[in-house]
Design goal:
Blueprint: E1 4-10, E2 22-26, E3 40-41, H1 52-55, H2 58-66, E4 76-81, E5 84-86, E6 105-111, H3 113-116, H4 121-128, E7 133-136, E8 139-140, H5 149-155, H6 161-174, H7 179-187, E9 190-191, E10 197-200, H8 201-219, H9 234-251, E11 258-261, E12 263-271, H10 275-288, H11 291-310
Length: 312
């Protein structure tokens, strides 16, 4: 049986997802005000935890790459976020309730025991039984009225399109053998989102060398010392482009099998055991409270109503 680890990245305290395969990891620990219990940390051994403001969840990927033995040297390694998950059982939500228009990442108001079955270990094992790499289904930014990836990057909050141009030039310089895939990203509209994947160890090693050599080179060319908190996340965004280029390349390799999955976006990570009962509980509280508390319970009730309506 294959040894598999899927790390779930956390920057704040939220409901803990944990199993034999799924392991939570706290990112940015080097500068964190609080270290969370029951999680791996990205600041032990060789790491870039102190650069998490720029690398975002990729500081966990770097840690896993450089400290692989601490994970038990798994045959497969993967990454999700505390509120963005793969649907390993092929579940798909309501097409009118997607994170991005006409996408394959579906909103889920809150987690329930029924929901958690989508990421159960048995489904992860089944998906990887005849597979080398799992990623989310690619997203077409034309659905966001952007003609290509560069245009869409220019629309991101506080991101400078010059950074994208530096990225493209850097990849062309470091990896000319990826010219075809670079053009697919530069001129095309498809990309693999969220820095989420599960790969065989040898592919993960190759990808991490590819990804971090590029991002480190870009980082050295961009002055981020005066950037805002949002603007400074540019390397996290560029990581998605690294993943896209690499997966484009994997798809043409005859000896590599890639599977593309649906995903979920959790609006609230509170685990609710009985959604209908909880709905009426919030309904009652919204009637007997006033002010901000009434507003709070009305919002919770609304989310649960949406969940009950769209749940499959």
């Amino acid at each position: 049986m294959q040894n598999i680890k899927v790390l779930v990245t956390y920057h704040d305290e939220h409901t803990l997802l944990k199993s034999k395969i799924v392991q939570p990891i706290q990112t940015g620990c080097a500068k964190a005000q609080k270290l969370f219990s029951g999680m791996l940390r990205d600041d032990i051994g060789e790491n870039i935890s102190d650069k998490n403001d720029r690398y975002c969840e990729l500081s966990a990927q770097y840690w896993a790459w450089k400290n692989y033995d601490k994970l038990g040297n798994p045959d497969y390694i993967g990454f999700m976020h505390y509120r963005r998950h793969f649907m390993f059982d092929d579940w798909s939500g309501n097409p009118n309730w997607c994170w991005l228009p006409k996408g394959n990442v579906y909103f889920v108001p809150t987690m329930t025991p029924e929901y958690l079955r989508h990421i159960d270990d048995k489904y992860i094992k089944r998906k990887l039984a005849d597979c080398d790499c799992l990623v989310l289904k690619p997203y077409d930014v034309k659905n966001l009225k952007s003609k290509n990836i560069r245009t869409q990057y220019s629309k991101l909050a506080e991101q400078d399109v010059h950074t994208f141009d530096v990225f493209i030039a850097t990849v062309k310089s470091l990896y000319p053998q990826f010219t075809r895939e670079i053009k697919m990203l530069e001129n095309g509209s498809l990309q693999y989102l969220c820095n989420m994947f599960v790969m065989k160890k040898e592919l993960f090693d190759e990808y991490s060398e590819f990804c971090f050599s590029i991002l480190q080179a870009v980082d050295s060319q961009i002055d981020s010392s005066k950037m805002s908190e949002v603007a400074s996340r540019f390397l996290g965004y560029l990581g998605e482009f690294c993943l896209s280029i690499f997966v484009f390349n994997l798809l043409k390799r005859e000896n590599v099998k890639v599977k593309e999955l649906n995903g979920s976006y959790i609006l609230s990570d509170e685990v609710i055991l009985n959604p209908k009962r909880k709905y009426w509980y919030y309904y009652f509280l919204s009637k007997i409270t006033i002010g901000s508390m009434r507003k709070k319970y009305k919002q919770k009730r609304k989310k649960l109503k949406q969940f009950i309506r769209y749940q499959k």
